[in-house]
């Protein structure tokens, strides 16, 4: 069977969480960076693999897999060692709801395509400030809901003392919040868990600053 290939962008939350999942499951892969800043994701060669022109795209098990949520569930279903979802249906549903509170309610509002639109609505000299204010508003609002969930569910990690898919989703979102200088003082559960996850090997291996397509100084 051919080695896995991951098309990824260094800071993309969806790419980041997929890299965490691959590392957690011990799956080695070839990394192919896609530059979203230069619109490489819209090149015909890449669009032929992934018609939505999004990242990530994973070549695995002789197939082409897209959408990080679908990829991560596939990995957990086909590689049951080190499971990321609870076996109890109610608990599994709660973890999925937590993940969607990030993937549906926060991430799309601060991704590159959205921020480009926000910047285009104001003058060029106001664009950067407008983007940061937009991110701050939506991440702060979304993290308010996440923090409230964690008050009820958290132990060492998002759900008790075992790493779950919720942690795989949370950590990249915290990375992006810090990248955009969002004040996280009001979210002690979020920051405590993220700081603990930062010491986990699978999360360290997936770190954007370790990716070959990261911006060079």
Characterization of the model:
This protein is an alpha+beta fold. It has 2 domains: 5-82, Glutaredoxin (3-Layer(aba) Sandwich); 89-202, Glutathione S-transferase Yfyf (Class Pi), Chain A, domain 2 (Up-down Bundle), CATH 1.20.1050. Helix content is 51%, strand content 8%. The chain contains 9 helices and 4 strands. It has helices at residues 13-24, 44-49, 68-78, 89-103, 112-120, 127-153, 165-179, 188-197, 201-205, and strands at 4-8, 29-33, 57-60, 63-66. It has a 4-stranded mixed sheet, with helices on one face. A hairpin with a 2-residue loop joins strand 3 and strand 4 (63-66). Helix 7 (165-179) packs across helix 8. It is globular, with a radius of gyration of 17 Å. The mean pLDDT is 97.
Give the key terms.
217 residues; alpha+beta; Glutaredoxin; Glutathione S-transferase Yfyf (Class Pi), Chain A, domain 2; 2 domains; four-stranded mixed beta sheet; 4 strands; 51% helix; 8% strand; Thioredoxin-like_sf; maleylacetoacetate isomerase activity
Secondary structure elements and pairings:
Elements: E1 4-8, H1 13-24, E2 29-33, H2 44-49, E3 57-60, E4 63-66, H3 68-78, H4 89-103, H5 112-120, H6 127-153, H7 165-179, H8 188-197, H9 201-205
Parallel strand pairs: 1-2
Antiparallel strand pairs: 1-3, 3-4
Helix pairs in contact: 1-3, 1-7, 4-7, 5-6, 7-8
CATH class of the largest domain: Mainly Alpha
Estimate the helix proportion, in percent: 40-55%
Largest sheet composition? 4 strands, mixed
Extract low-pLDDT stretches. none
How does the overall form come out from the CA principal axes?
A: globular
How do the helices and strands follow one another from N- to C-terminus? EHEHEEHHHHHHH
Q: Please list the strands of the largest sheet in the order they lie side by side.
A: 2-1-3-4
Count of strand segments: 4
Radius of gyration: 17 Å
Which fold name fills CATH's third level, the topology of the largest domain?
A: Glutathione S-transferase Yfyf (Class Pi), Chain A, domain 2
* End-to-end separation: 38 Å
**Helix count, per DSSP?**
9
* Sheet/helix structural class: alpha+beta
Number of domains: 2
CATH architecture tag of the largest domain: Up-down Bundle
Strand content: 5-15%
């Amino acid at each position: 069977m051919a080695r896995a290939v991951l098309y990824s962008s260094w800071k993309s939350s969806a790419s980041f969480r997929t890299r965490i999942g691959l590392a957690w499951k011990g799956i080695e892969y070839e990394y192919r960076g896609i530059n979203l800043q230069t619109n490489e994701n819209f090149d015909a060669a890449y669009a032929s693999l992934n018609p939505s022109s999004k990242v990530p795209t994973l070549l695995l098990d002789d197939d082409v897999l897209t959408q990080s949520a679908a990829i991560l569930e596939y990995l957990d279903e086909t590689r049951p060692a080190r499971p990321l979802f609870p076996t109890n249906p109610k608990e599994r549903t709660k973890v999925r709801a937590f993940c969607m509170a990030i993937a549906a309610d926060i991430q799309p509002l601060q991704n590159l395509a959205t921020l480009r639109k926000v910047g285009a609505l104001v003058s060029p000299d106001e664009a950067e400030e407008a983007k940061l204010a937009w991110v701050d508003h939506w991440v702060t609002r979304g993290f308010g809901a996440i923090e409230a969930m964690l008050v009820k569910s958290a132990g060492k990690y998002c759900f008790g003392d075992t790493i779950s898919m919720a942690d795989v989703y949370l950590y990249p979102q915290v990375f992006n919040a810090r990248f955009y200088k969002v004040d996280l003082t009001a979210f002690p559960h979020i920051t405590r868990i993220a700081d603990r996850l930062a010491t986990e090997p699978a999360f360290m291996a997936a770190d954007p600053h370790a990716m070959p397509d990261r911006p060079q100084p």
